[in-house]
Recover the amino acids of this structure.
């Protein structure tokens, strides 16, 4: 059965800082996805990434994933991702950037009015009915207020990337509405690439292994899981990963470290 949003709860939770079911979504990413998506394996049939602003799945597709499943604890993230895919399919390059910028500015302002944003009406007609009704009902709430300015941040696709995306992304991404702790219960396939950067910052350090080990069972040989750089962010490094995680998987994974990321790669 489709998810039925709770408008009353949404009006309350959208103002909370911690990630929840109705956390305000990022309009564009604050990560450099052009670095982490370089780790999408050459042959990548299935990938799994957070929905966030929609940029994670879009860049994952751009860097070679054939099919991308998405998840997020926030329903607003799913809405933002679907808005972006709809915008991509009905706007030219300049309008797309301006539309995201206008949405960002509206949601950051004191007097939010989402349906007043130019082209929003057209986009809402392309969204699933429940989502369009939800956005209309919460028109004056900052549903999409996180993250940097789309135009200033430099994270919008280039014109060439935009043209590639328009050809490749013709329908919404599949989505699981769940926090990372229950994600594994939704998974029915195995993946070549799983992107978890910036998710583990928000879970308790003691639960890393419990969360990661089940997801590692869903990785194909040659597949990779991208994590953030634990050394820099949380004080956990190779030592922790080796003791708590790699020792549990019979040498079937290796840990690689780049400047910004930890990569768990399944070798057999
Ligand atoms: C962690 S935030 C950080 C923003 C991110 N760096 C970006 O570029 O969009 C990204 C997304 O993760 C979601 N999120 C946060 N904690 C989560 C969790 N425990 N499980 C699932 N999704 C989560 C948020 O709702 C948000 O949409």
């Amino acid at each position: 059965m489709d998810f039925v949003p709770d408008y009353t709860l949404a009006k309350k939770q959208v103002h909370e800082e911690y990630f929840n079911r109705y956390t305000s979504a990022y309009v564009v990413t604050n990560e450099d996805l052009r670095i982490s998506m370089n780790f999408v394996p050459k042959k990548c049939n299935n990938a799994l990434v957070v929905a966030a602003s929609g940029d994670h799945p879009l860049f994952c597709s751009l860097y070679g994933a054939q099919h991308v499943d998405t998840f997020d604890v926030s329903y607003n993230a799913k809405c933002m991702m679907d808005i972006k895919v709809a915008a991509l399919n009905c706007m030219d390059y300049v309008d797309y950037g301006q539309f995201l910028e206008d949405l960002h500015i509206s949601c950051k302002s004191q007097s939010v009015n989402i349906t007043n944003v130019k082209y929003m009406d057209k986009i809402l007609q392309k969204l699933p009915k429940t989502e369009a009704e939800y956005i209309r009902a919460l028109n004056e709430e900052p549903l999409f207020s996180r993250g940097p300015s789309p135009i200033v941040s430099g994270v919008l696709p280039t014109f060439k990337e935009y043209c590639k995306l328009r050809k490749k992304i013709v329908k919404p991404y599949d989505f699981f509405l769940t926090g990372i702790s229950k994600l594994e219960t939704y998974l029915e396939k195995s993946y070549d690439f799983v992107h978890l950067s910036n998710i583990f910052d928000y879970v308790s350090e003691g639960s890393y292994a419990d969360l990661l080990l089940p997801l590692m069972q869903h990785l194909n040989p040659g597949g990779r899981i991208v994590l953030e750089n634990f050394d820099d962010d949380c004080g956990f490094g190779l030592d922790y990963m080796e003791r708590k995680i790699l020792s549990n998987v019979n040498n079937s994974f290796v840990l690689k470290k780049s400047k910004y990321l930890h990569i768990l790669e399944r070798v057999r």
About this structure: The first strand starts at residue 46 and ends at 50.
